[in-house]
Amino acid sequence: MKTSKSVMIISFICFFIVFLPSANATTFGHIHSQGGKFGAYYDSSITTYGYTSHFDFARNSWAGISPNVAISKSSTRGYGIDEYYVGTSSTPHLYGLFSPYNDVFSVGVTVDPLKRNWVYSVISVYDNNIKDDGLKNSTNIRHTTTHELGHSLGLAHTEDTPKKATSVMTKGQEADRSITTPSDYDKNQLRTLY
Hints:
The chain has about 190 residues and is an alpha/beta fold. About 35% of the residues lie in helices and about 20% in strands.
């Protein structure tokens, strides 16, 4: 009887170690309603500011990591299609923003990605802040676009301290902006979702 209880307790502990999410998990736990395969509409602002190749680079950076992940370019807006923009922000040092939405009677309603899936997201990149902070070059712009598209695929900021140095998903001032592609850690996190 004592042995049986011990086995049950050890089994219970092992279950929690194996199946509970890590405190350093870097996914939202929720994803785009289309899964890892969805379209992206490029607003005319992307061409106007000269960011087309940077968004193309970012989409391609996430492709091929999992057979279930591909962001295609869409010529139209629509249900389940992400939207990409370049513009300005009055918030200093904000270079990009991921905003997930649900579609409720054709109206976009903001979603908390930690609580539920989203139908589409809007990715905004803020040219004025990138320029004002002396970061307007291909490397920094590609870091920003790849980072924000990572969010649209369900990746949160990297919280695992040893992984922050190489992750494109490291947040803000902690980020190494010379990183423009997903690290092995980022790729593994993406594969946990897809």
